[in-house]
Amino acid sequence: MAQRLALQRLLSLPARGPLASHGRAFGTSSGRRSTFNVQDGSDFQDRVVNSPKPVVVDFHAQWCGPCKILGPRLEKLVAKQEGKVLMAKVDIDDHTDLAIEYEVSAVPTVLAMKNGDVVDKFVGIKDEDQLEAFLKKLIGA
Fold it and tell me: Domain Thioredoxin, which positions (predicted)?
């Protein structure tokens, strides 16, 4: 009986591992259209560098405690901008090449990009007021 319950619990867990991460990943919040996970270098080029809208790029890692605090905070504020800015999430362990290209030496590192160029950047955790100022400067509000 205990084995059957354990198996049922195991089967009800969300899929994990390399096969579960394929395809585009979206959040379930209202910001799902404005926040996306970068899949590869070509996806980054298409959706970030070539974006007609400003993009906030969150370089993070699964093992990074401050990233787990900053990420949701930043996603919430980007969603409040109602499509004026996008947010790309880049896991540095999956996309080391992008981290090297954009000189990410610590996480979290957040870039503000406009027309394919980095126009602002910060490293570490910020409070909501600082993040709002960062976004307003990016979108020119």
Answer: 24-140
Domain count, the chain: 1
Phi-psi sector, 111: left (phi>0), alpha (psi -120 to 50), beta: beta
Residue 19 belongs to a domain: no
Where in the sequence is the domain holding 127, given as residue range(s)? 35-139
Q: Say whether 67 is catalytic.
A: yes
1 inside domain: no
Pair 105, 52: CB distance under 8 Å? no
Catalytic: which of 38, 57, 67, 79?
Answer: 67
In a domain, 23, yes or no: no
Catalytic annotation present for 2: no
CB 98 within 8 Å of CB 89:
no
Residue 7 inside a domain? The answer is: no
Q: In the chain, helix, strand, coil percent, each to 5?
A: 45, 20, 35
Q: What is the mean pLDDT of each run of 10 residues along the chain (141 residues)?
A: 47 43 41 83 96 97 97 96 96 97 97 96 96 95 59
Q: Count other C-beta atoms under 10 Å from residue 49's C-beta.
A: 14
Q: What is the pTM of this model?
A: 0.77
- Across the strands, what pairs with 121? 111
